[in-house]
Amino acid sequence: MRRGFIFACTKKSEKEMLDNLIFATNKVYGYKVLAIRKDDFVFLYNIDTDILYGTFISTTDGQYDNSIPLFNGRYPYFVKVQPKTEIKKLNNASIVFRKLKISWRDILSERGVEVLSKILENKNLTLSKNISGLVEKNFRPPIFSTTLWDFPTQSYGDKPKGNNKYPGVTPAFIIYNLIHRYTEPNDLVCDPMAGSGTTIDVCKEERRRVIAFDIVPTRPDIIQADARKLPLKDNSVDMIFIDSPYGDNIKYNEHPLNIGNIPASDEKFYDELEKVMQECYRILKYGKVLAWLIGDQWAKKTFIPVGFKVYERLTKYFQPVDIICVVRRNQSSNTPFWHSKAIQHNFYLRGFKYLIIVKKEHKKQNFGNLKIEWRSYER
Ligand SMILES: C[S@@+](CC[C@H](N)C(=O)[O-])C[C@H]1O[C@@H](n2cnc3c(N)ncnc32)[C@H](O)[C@@H]1O
């Protein structure tokens, strides 16, 4: 399926984009550019003059090059285009966008492209009042700007991300958001407990390099290793994502080194996770981010604040960056049976997970040679 992408430009950048037939943008919309495939449809919208140009065809996939000698280096995400036929101009484009209930920030469906192209060509078009289906709703997750993240499905896009049948599979939009925030294309991302490989699939689509481990690999591109002893050099990765076991609530496998066989009520569980944290600290580059997904437990009539306990251990090594609340959906306890049990026995079903984001602080300056002359002053 071919989709449509609208690039924004200004009075200043319009000429450079049209002359070079290269449409470009910055990190804010970089995620959209990386979703472009060769032969998708592209439009250019001048936000100063409210003019839309089209229709263009992308001659490449969306690209990233932070040394591109155009736009004063401000727009490293770009695509090369060719006009489909003669370039058409549409004045007062914002009025048309409003009528179609689309925004230039949206990714357009094939139908959306067809409608917008016809309007550009001035062709007669009868639009029904309840016009819909012009926008690709969940083709890519949103980039969240608050600390509450929620998305309806485990995966998104054309290809599956991980395996949604794998117990404890990670919602892919979490990894998608993290890598767009904390890495650039070609950076190296590591997942030490990769499960069904969601991190691999998201990273590959977003043009990040990725290395993934698990104690019991489920696919050939996951390397067998214990997350407490990873075959990686010190200070070598740009971001780490971990969705660790939350205790022994899910049976991943019978491997004796599987930390998911230790209950969250046992302090040993946190001691073993702390060894994983130390290993993450060793392999992560200074100034880079580790994101840890974790949920609390309510088991055997007891609440265990697993998230707080993991946070406490993490901050022994790392600097906190933020904590995200990720809404839990599609879990097995989301049934009328469990809802009534929760009310009858006065407990709560887990409604969210913590995404704890921490940073390996830059190396402390070495004050070893600093001479301090102590003096005492009379009071
Ligand atoms: C919550 S799952 C990860 C889910 C994964 N992110 C996905 O999307 O499919 C936790 C994983 O930790 C792995 N694991 C448990 N102990 C481990 C250890 N010591 N070293 C490496 N992986 C381990 C389990 O095998 C399991 O696959």
What does this structure look like?
It is globular, with a radius of gyration of 25 Å. Helix 5 (172-182) packs across helix 6 (198-205) and helix 7 crosses helix 8. The model has no long low-confidence stretch (mean pLDDT 93). The chain has 2 domains: 4-120, ph1033 like domains (ph1033 like fold), CATH 3.10.590.10; 148-359, Rossmann fold (3-Layer(aba) Sandwich). With 379 residues, the protein is an alpha/beta fold. It has 9 helices and 17 strands. The protein starts with a strand and ends in a 20-residue tail after the last strand. The chain has an 8-stranded mixed beta sheet with strand order 8-16-17-13-12-9-10-11. Bound molecules: S-adenosylmethionine. S-adenosylmethionine (SAM) binds at residues 162, 166, 168-170, 192-196, 198, 213-216, 226-228, 243-245, 252-253, 257-260. S-adenosylmethionine (SAM) is lined by residues 162, 166, 168-170, 192-196, 198, 213-216, 226-228, 243-245, 252-253, 257-260.
